[in-house]
Amino acid sequence: MAETVQQSTFDNREFIAFCIGEQEFCVDIMSVREIRGWSPATPLPQTPDYMRGVINLRGAVLPIMDLASRLGLQSNEPSERSVIIVVRMGERTIGLLVDAVSDILSVTQEMIQATPDVACDKVKSFVRGLITVEGRMISEIANERLLPELEALAA
Predict the structure, then answer these.
(1) pLDDT tens digits for range 27-36
(2) Which uninterrupted H or E stretch holds 3?
(3) How far is residue 116 from each of residues 23, 41, 113, 121, measured CA to CA in Å?
């Protein structure tokens, strides 16, 4: 019996859940380096619309992606509740601008459902799966698909 409990604990994965507008998303906690409050980014020329610019993170230049814009959702001006989730994607570190962090989730593999076929290919490329927790539907973001150059490597 103890072996079964130990195995199921080992199978749990943890995610950081966050809000963009009225929708909830999450990323694997193992990719998260830190969560920090919003600070204005310095825009760079010739970058995609979803890139807000860069900030100085303890002496390192950190690119900031407006995740709402990247996912094709309504992008709002950052507020005092907005946060930057600093994530590691392969060899790169990037900040994801989101409206607010809502939760830390501990889920089993059985709780993660495949993205339904009714979703368009673009959604399916960004959303790895759906997690149902306490009546909420939370989309798991596939970090490696957010940056076009990483998306080509992941394909």
Answers:
(1) 999 999 999 9
(2) helix 2-11
(3) 17, 35, 8, 10
Number of other CB atoms surrounding residue 39 within 10 Å: 13
The pLDDT, as a whole number, for residue 8 is 46
Task: Please state, rounded to an integer, the average pLDDT across all residues of the chain.
Answer: 85
d(C-alpha 1, C-alpha 69), whole Å: 48
d(CA 36, CA 101): 10
- DSSP assignment of 47-100, as one string? --TTEEEEEEETTEEEEEEEHHHHTTSPP----TT-EEEEEEETTEEEEEEESE
Which tokens hold the place of 19?
A: 């809000």
Lowest average pLDDT, out of 75-79, 81-85, 90-94, 114-118, goes to: 114-118
